[in-house]
């Protein structure tokens, strides 16, 4: 999680050289070998605070990134600091490009019974989850049948 969005300190023009001292080439990526936070992103001491090293590298080349944007690693390597592997995007875009549960579910086009998640066959339930209307109706009919059988 990126919390600080301060621009790179202009007093430190050697920031890219300092970053380069703690990197190595791995395939297409330039991988950070310095300090790593518990979330798996590289950390760099600058301006009296630790900041995400990939964000500092990007800002050193392209200028400040707006506070509402997150840096997306196009290469999917959290330790990569190669600037052309980074793109500032919204939080939602960053999450949807990833492999987390929310992104996996958002990419689904059909329910587990292969009914389409489209048009009138999809709705959002009271818990905010996308539901298949066909499956929902099948469950309700089965529930009603069970209830009637118990009542007899």
Could you give the topology of this structure?
Elements: H1 15-20, E1 23-26, E2 29-32, E3 43-46, E4 49-52, H2 53-62, E5 70-73, E6 86-89, H3 91-97, H4 101-106, E7 122-124, E8 130-132, H5 133-151
Antiparallel strand pairs: 1-2, 3-4, 5-6, 7-8
Explain this structure to me?
The protein is an alpha+beta fold and 152 residues long. The chain has a two-stranded antiparallel sheet with strand order 1-2. Residues 1-11 have low confidence and may be disordered. The termini are far apart. The chain contains 5 helices and 8 strands; from the N terminus they run αββββαββααββα.
Q: Specify the oligomeric state.
A: single chain
How many helical elements?
Answer: 5
- Average predicted local confidence, pLDDT: 90
* Largest pleated sheet: 2 strands, antiparallel
Number of strands: 8
Structural class: alpha+beta
Strand content: 15-25%
Poorly predicted regions: 1-11
Q: Give the H and E element order.
A: HEEEEHEEHHEEH
Shape: elongated
**Rg value:** 23 Å
Widest β-sheet, arrangement of strands: 1-2
How far apart, in Å, are the first and last alpha carbons? 57 Å
- State the helical fraction: 25-40%
């Amino acid at each position: 999680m990126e919390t600080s969005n301060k621009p790179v300190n202009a007093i430190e023009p050697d920031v890219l050289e300092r970053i380069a001292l703690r990197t190595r080439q791995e395939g297409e990526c330039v991988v950070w070998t310095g300090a790593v936070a518990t979330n798996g992103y590289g950390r760099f001491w600058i301006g009296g605070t630790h900041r995400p090293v990939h964000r500092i590298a990007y800002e050193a080349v392209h200028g400040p990134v707006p506070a509402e944007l997150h840096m997306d690693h196009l290469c999917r390597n959290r330790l990569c600091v190669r600037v052309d592997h980074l793109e500032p995007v919204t939080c939602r875009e960053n999450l949807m490009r990833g492999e987390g549960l929310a992104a996996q579910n958002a990419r689904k086009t059909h329910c587990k019974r292969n009914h389409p998640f489209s048009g009138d066959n999809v709705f959002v339930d009271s818990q905010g989850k996308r539901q298949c209307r066909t499956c929902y109706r099948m469950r309700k009919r089965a529930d009603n049948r069970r209830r009637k059988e118990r009542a007899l």
